[in-house]
Design brief:
Blueprint (H helix, E strand, L loop, with lengths): L3 E7 L2 E6 L2 H15 L6 H32 L4 E7 L2 E6 L6 H31 L3 H21 L7 H14 L2 H30 L2 H31 L4 H4 L13 H12 L3 E6 L2 E7 H5 L11 H4 L1 E2 L12 H7 L5 E6 L2 E7 H13 L7
Parallel strand pairs: 2-3
Antiparallel strand pairs: 1-2, 3-4, 5-6, 6-7, 8-9
Helix pairs in contact: 1-2, 2-3, 2-4, 3-4, 3-5, 5-6, 6-7
This protein binds zinc ion.
Length: about 375
Amino acid sequence: MRGSINLGKIFGIPLRLHYTWFIIFTLVTISLVLYFPGDYPIVERIAFGILASILFFACIIIHELAHSVLAIRNNIPVKEITLFVFGGVSHITKEATRPNTELLIAVVGPLVSLAMGGIFYGLSILLAQAQQTLIASLMQWLAIINVVLALFNLIPGFPLDGGRVFRAIVWRKTGNYFRATYIATNVGQGIAYAFMVGGLAIILVTHLWFNGLWLIFIGWFLHNAARASYQQVLLRDSLSGLTVRHVTDYGCPLAPPELSLRELAQSYILPTGRTSFPVAREATLEGMVTLRDIKKIPQNRWDTTTVRDIMTPANKLKIAYPNQDILSLLQQMEGTDHIPVVEEGKFIGIVDREDLNRFLRIRIALGTKLRF
Ligand SMILES: [Zn+2]
């Protein structure tokens, strides 16, 4: 997630704090200070509010860790865990390949939250018996909030945990991942609308502006997340079976390494309108040269400077392979406009980002329908 602070790693998983987290941290802390019994000095209540808030977010991290650790155990890499304004999120890099795996990864988070709720409840009773009322009320709050967290996440609105459980069940019943996602994301959007309508009703009926707006925000966030998940699946579906070979431009001319920049401009760039050229001799890729590289060199040096002098050498380039699937190519192309395609050590063509985008747009526009 952009705009986030690195907090280090737990179990090898990077933990990050998005700047919007500070909003929720402040709100939770304030509500906690008000929650604690008023007969304690304010300084003590503030200190306990901050402590409780930190413990609350530690519980959210444990909830996310439960998802992440189970994902990793099932060979699904986890990029990072991020805390943000709506809680925590595990960035799991790919979807499970079997419904049972998905169900397990989804359900373990709420189960861990429920278990923590039970532990904190037990502690609160013990501490109350020992006359530690302030710590007891802190533990009681943590017990309640963990149970609320578990129940909220079990709402079957995709992409909440409950929605993932729901998708896994439909997936197992129908044997069709795409159909299951279609149904789950539709239900998820319905639930998101219900949140927004509920929030509006709260504002109109009870005038609790803050609670109502919060619910509307959650609904809006869930709606966007459900729609994005659906589009992701649509894209994946329309791309299944496609490889780099299908989007490679085989007609890209090769620039010899000793070519001068003037010749490159006059005989390659101007006649073709292309802005980047593989530098190669007899199909052995030596590097890539782009319009941007050339523009850095003053024109009076174009006759004496060769392509080799300014190219990005092959060992610093990202390389695609013909049998690679398109989804991994899309990830690889983040931040690059062109990527050379190499087969058995030989350069065979180039993938251009604009060509690729056009190809994807057409394919989606043609309506490669979901298979059901
Ligand atoms: Zn969860």
